Amino acid sequence: MAKRAQIIPPRPDLKRKAVNFSKGFDLKLAPEVVEKLEKVVHKSQDKFTADIAERLTAMRRSIAQNAADSSLHPYMIKALSEASREIKGAGGTIGFDLLTYIGKSLNDFVEGMAELSVRQLEVCTLHIDAMYVVLANRITGAGGEVEAELLRAFDEACAKFRDVS
Amino acid sequence: MPEKIDFSKVSFLIVDTNPLSAQLVRDILGMLDVTAVRTANNIERAQNVLRRDGVDVVITEHALGDESGVDLIDWIRNAADSPDRMTPVIMLTANSAQTYVMTARDKGVSEFLAKPFTVEGLYRRLVSVIARPRAFVNIDDYFGPDRRRRQVPYDGPERRSTDG
Predict the structure, then answer these.
(1) How do B57-60 and B89-93 pair as beta strands?
(2) Which of A30, A65, B62, B100 has the fewest CB atoms within 10 Å of its CB?
């Protein structure tokens, strides 16, 4: 039999020491404060783009080294999964929304896979190439009609080849 | 007079395997006048920090190499050697599919924020855990913040008085 839920009131100590009426930041930030904080993010943009470029290179290298031997595919897929997840998380944070979309698409594509067919490897490579293009051309935001078309094409390719081995 | 948060009084632990990501959060916290920030890139190090120093708020990734931030939450909420079972934990992660959110929620995460994130999104989570903490619930196999986010008004028939 389920026991009765014990409700424990929120502990007041953290609120008591940090929340006041005179010093600090308003609970709802003023636009100028948000802008100041966003500058911190913008400042780190170069470091993040360099990091993303390194991850793209590492993904290409992993495919080049492991694609021919299917027993090595789990390592390659793990590398693709981890790198694409990081790019998915970092891209939009620093203004490269397209990197997030394409990184997510690749991350979803390899999720749960143990081996990749030639076609599936091509889909992965296309994702990586597209992210290189976005980065090299510094395409920030969601892009335009061409980019939207590209994303639709990725969706279709992923759906078509996701379960084909 | 509106409430304010003096972040200089709040200590943080950031748990992330990606040093750039951890540094970005640290920099944002620095702009909020936070001075006490610790970082860890795996669960064992995070546990050591929590045992040794204790912190007010934990911000953790879900993906920690072969480990999971959910395991850290589980340890904080349920382990016999947890230094503080009610420590607020914000999960900041690129693993944002519903299944990850549900698992983190059911292990007792205080707030969940998907990467990519905005500074406003992070700030709202900080406000929530510091200024608007939720009650905790202890029942069967769950110990953590009350998972009910809002009270939904019920305008159907009153059945409790006649039930049973």
Answers:
(1) parallel
(2) A30
